[in-house]
Amino acid sequence: MPELPEVEVSRLGLLPYLPGQVLQGVSLRAPRLRHELSPALAERPVGRCLKRVERRGKYLLFDFESEGGGGWIILHLGMSGSLRLVPPGTPPGKHDHVDLHFPGRTLRYRDPRRFGTLLWVDGPVVLDHPLLAPLGVEPLSDAFDGAWLHQALRRRQAPIKQVLMDAHCIVGVGNIYAAESLFRSRISPLTPACRLSRQRCDRLAATVREVLAESIAAGGSSVRDYVHSDGGAGSFQLIVAVYDREGEPCQVCGGPIRRITQGGRSTFYCPRCQR
DNA sequence: CGTTACCCCTGGAGGC
DNA sequence: TGCCTCCAGGGGTAAC
């Protein structure tokens, strides 16, 4: 499942090829992903120049400039989405739902489970869109540190694991990175967020940043004209210490990794090391 | 305002 | 071997 690092690596993979190119056409082969695919997506951006590809949380934002005000494509990979650049005319596979045709290259969106999002927004500004406006802090920005985190957690009584994954608080931290960050900072996923000391918030903020940056660096080194986003085990060479390792020995203490359910999702942690 | 239940969808896992 | 059922999982939305 694509998380912030996979999305950022996808973005980096597009940068050498797409900005500055005029969109020639759009093919929609599915009626809907998470939401209905609007006809505007197939019509409005065509003939416009793609200025930039930005990222906000796990959303990719394609900026199409224009004399008349411009507009954006908002894209989210959901759980199983991936992007790749293919030569024009490449036959689409079963789950290749959308193509953006650029000169000499087609940006192809694949999403077997169709939890993704792809939509067109008119106008020069996109960050005030209802999907983006409520998003929390970017964990790789300067604004995110122990002091910020300590303040943000003050009123949250929910377990820290669930708050870490709350995109209205911090964007881009999914199940894998939440588990790995908590393991590295030796904090139990069950700890009520508001009970974390300033010192532990310092440690947690640092490890969240560290894990994300490591993963981006590992993925970034493998970017070519193929844009990876499948997020499969080991695809980013991130050393996974606890995620999906129920029953396996902890790398630090040798005790068994435990799996529990929090908010309907699996949490993996070492009950001995994480307090 | 914080928290929780539900829903979207399909591949893969497990049961028989 | 094959068919059927179950369910994870991001995140938005509605409801509590």
Core attributes:
single chain, 275 residues, alpha+beta, four-stranded antiparallel β-sheet, 6 helices, 10 strands, 22% helix, elongated, DNA-binding
Distance between the termini: 27 Å
Ranges with pLDDT <50 over ≥5 residues? 222-226, 228-235
Instruction: Give the biggest sheet.
Output: 4 strands, antiparallel
Helical residues, percent: 10-25%
Q: How many beta-strand elements?
A: 10
If you had to describe this structure to a student in words, what would you say it looks like?
This protein is an alpha+beta fold and 275 residues long. The protein has helices spanning 4-14, 39-43, 146-152, 160-164, 175-184, 198-220; strands at residues 25-28, 49-56, 59-65, 71-76, 82-86, 96-102, 105-110, 117-122, 258-262, 265-269. Strands 1-6-7-5 form a four-stranded antiparallel β-sheet. Strands 2-3-4-8 form a four-stranded antiparallel β-sheet. A two-stranded antiparallel sheet has the order 9-10. A hairpin with a 2-residue loop joins β2 (49-56) and β3 (59-65). The chain starts with a helix and ends in a 6-residue tail after the last strand. It binds a DNA duplex (16 and 16 nucleotides) through loops.
